[in-house]
Amino acid sequence: MAISDRSPLGHAVAYPNRSDPALLFPIARAQARAEIGLDETALPFIGADLWNAYELSWLDARGQPRVAIAELRVPADSPNLVESKSLKLYLNGYAHEHFDDPAAVQARIACDLSSAAGSQVEIALIESRDFAVLRIAESPGVPLDDLQIDIADYGPPQPDHLRAAASSSPIEEALVTQAFRSNCPVTGQPDWASVQVRYQGAPIDHAGLLRYLVSYRRHSGFHEACVERIFVDIMERCSPQMLSVYARFTRRGGLDINPWRATPGFGAARSNTRGARQ
Q1: Rg of the chain on CA atoms, in Å
Q2: Which of 73, 106, 203, 266 is the most buried if burial means most Cβ atoms within 10 Å?
Q3: pLDDT for res 1
Q4: How far apart are CA 95 and CA 18, in angstroms?
Q5: Which residue out of 49, 101, 130, 184 is catalytically annotated?
Q6: List of residues 6+ apart from 124 with CB closer than 8 A
């Protein structure tokens, strides 16, 4: 049975009046990883999927609505990712439930998501009184979109575009595009993102990297799988000593997903600063 037959994504569903962990729809990462030659027991990267849920609300002990933004960090080595519409439905179930304090909400969500993902999910709640301190900033790096090059390849992903000057001295740089697009494998709807590639090693050809990233434009894949494919292809074709790939996808249904994968030891866990399009 296909994912689309079992998932709420792409189907009309009724919104729940209670939080129900049975609504969460886990998807095993193993199949997408096997397609790009990854062994689940020996992943070449560390990382996390950083989720932001902008439509979280509950009732306090007096029945007054409270709102918060939930930041979720799902570890990259968890067996499962959680399908986004199922998470939206699950979180909307909190809107009519009473909680004595935000900590109780946080604990419930962390418990249910950790069970679905098969690994400990970290959660932080940003309450409405703290919204004013949130900021918008883009991932730093050389903007690939300023290149004046011809592009005619929009999919499937073409790693042949990737090349590095192996005879040159190693460098460290970050490269960024705002023009990344892939497609949901269930609904076919477009997914938009900014992508930062940071590496240490032989200089990577900027034009080739941009052509490669643009070649995802007709590719169907979940956000997390796209980032892992990018990581694997760059490692195989360019052989950097260290590599980080970080994508920040625009929100859909009150959620955005921001996968980050990196070679162990290459920088701390990524910050979760929202981009202008998020």
Answers
A1: 19
A2: 73
A3: 41
A4: 8
A5: 184
A6: 70, 71, 106
CA angle 144, 236, 263 (to 5 degrees): 80
Ranges of the chain whose pLDDT falls below 70 = 1-15, 268-269
Q: Say what the pLDDT of residue 7 is.
A: 57
Contact by Cβ (8 Å): 226, 216: yes
- Token reading at 63: 């029945």
> Model pTM greater than 0.90?
yes
Q: 2: which 2 tokens? A: 């296909």
One-letter-per-residue 3-state SS of 198-256: EEEECCECHHHHHHHHHCCCCCECCHHHHHHHHHHHHHHHHCCCEEEEEEEECCECCEE
Nearest 10 degrees: Cα torsion 191, 195, 201, 206: 90
> Which residue out of 77, 101, 112, 191 is catalytically annotated?
191
Return the pLDDT at 16.
72
Structure token digits, residue 213: 């990233």
Establish how many alpha carbons lie within 13 A of residue 212's alpha carbon, considering only the half-sphere containing its beta carbon: 26
| Dihedrals phi, psi of 262, to nearest 5 degrees | -150, 155
Nearby residues of 42 by Cβ (< 8 Å), 6 or more positions away: none
Decide: 186 and 233 in contact? Cβ < 8 Å. no
The two structure tokens encoding residue 105: 């909400």
Residue with tokens 């993102």: 193
Active site annotation includes 238:
no
What distance in Å separates the CA atoms of residue 133 and residue 148, rounded to the nearest whole number? 37
Q: Taking the mean position of all CA atoms in its chain, how far away is CA 92?
A: 21
